[in-house]
Specification:
- This protein has 13 helices and no strands.
- The protein is an all-alpha fold.
- About 80% of the residues lie in helices and about 0% in strands.
- Helix 3 packs antiparallel against helix 4 and helix 4 runs parallel beside helix 9.
Length: about 280
């Protein structure tokens, strides 16, 4: 719509009228209060995706960069991040299901022992049985917590890679200097409540462009693409290694817990009944 010649406010009005996205209605309501489009976006943003769009819009507004190109740039960044998350979710579905299933193995073993006829109550009454059941319960809880931590770390959403490079590239494309572009990107991310952007890589790219006399915008854009590809590869690697890492809590906590909650009470119950029968 912007490329077709509509003003930003008219474009937001058209999007809100056709109910393309609920954010558009909230932005349009704020625009009636004479806020800028970037301010309206930042004020209604509840996710990092919308905050990223607001930051890009703010940089483009201040620097005078073409809004259409800036929005296509951030759309590509967000689309790539979403595809990376979907790939990771697919790769993690197996290890996540395994962790969920194995975490209940000790409890299932205890229920199986009870179903076979083991006297769990009588076993717990003895010091050895109480120690075994208490230790097994603690190990089961520790194993469940350990596996949840591993899965959470592997599925944790990371900040959009390359966003700092894209913001600075948009500012420079609008006519800002390199230092001004860095300041604009930092100010926009702070105003839009984004997590602190790591612009160290972007600064190194700018120094390279300055010393070599190369176009800074092209180098920053290429660096952002490379960062996105690296983040996608890291997500796949984390998903692949999760299955191996889950073997640690399985061997250290879950299997010993199964033995203490299922096998030991069953053996103690059999010994108790055997000794009682002999007596």
């Amino acid at each position: 719509m912007l490329d077709a010649g509509l003003t930003p406010r008219a474009a937001w009005g058209a999007v809100a009228e056709h109910a393309v996205h609920p954010v558009a209605t909230a932005v349009l309501a704020r625009l009636d209060g004479r806020a800028t489009c970037a301010e309206a976006l930042a004020g209604t943003a509840t996710t990092d995706d919308v905050r990223s769009i607001a930051a890009v819009w703010a940089v483009a507004e201040v620097a005078g960069a073409p809004l259409g190109h800036a929005l296509r740039t951030v759309a590509e960044t967000l689309r790539y991040a979403a595809e990376s998350e979907r790939d990771a979710d697919v790769a993690l579905s197996g290890p996540r299901a395994t962790a969920r299933l194995m975490s209940w193995l000790p409890a299932a073993g205890a229920a199986m022992a009870l179903g076979i006829g083991a006297d769990i109550a009588g076993t717990v009454a003895s010091p050895v049985g109480a120690t075994a059941v208490g230790g097994g319960a603690l190990l089961m809880l520790a194993g469940r917590w350990w596996m949840r931590v591993l899965v959470r770390r592997a599925t944790a959403r990371r900040s959009h890679p390359g966003l700092a490079e894209e913001l600075i590239a948009i500012a420079i494309a609008g006519g800002a200097s390199a230092e001004a572009g860095v300041r604009l990107a930092a100010d926009a991310s702070h105003a839009c409540r984004l997590r602190s952007l790591d612009d160290s890589g972007a600064r190194a790219t700018l120094r390279l462009a300055s010393s070599a006399g190369a176009p800074a915008v092209e180098l920053l854009t290429a660096s952002a693409r490379q960062l996105r590809r690296s983040a996608r590869a890291q997500a796949r690697s984390a998903a692949a290694t999760l299955g191996v890492r889950l073997m640690l809590p399985l061997g250290v906590c879950v299997l010993p817990s199964f033995l203490l909650l299922a096998v030991v009470p069953l053996l103690l119950s059999l010994l108790s009944s055997t000794v009682g029968g002999l007596a």
